[in-house]
Amino acid sequence: MQKPVDFRKDTNAWIVQVWAAFLISVSATGIGIVYMPVDAWAKGFLGIGFVFSLSSSFTLAKTVRDNQEASRLIAKIEEARVEKILAEHSPLK
Hints:
By secondary structure, the chain is mostly helical. The chain has one domain. The two termini are 19 Å apart.
């Protein structure tokens, strides 16, 4: 039986675009917080909120990815189990 080919590799252009967008958005937000005309405690509060939002979005993305990979692995195991059962109980034997 042939193995399915996995074509889910991102292109270099996409990877550069994603990293550029991330760096620009983080830099722009950080600069905006630094130059905002408010007290230092307000800037600190916004900075902490920004860092927490950033870290929680990374955690969410990792969790979604891990759950998707786990479900794909479980599906592959189930498929292999069904194929084994069908091969063992073939009426043509």
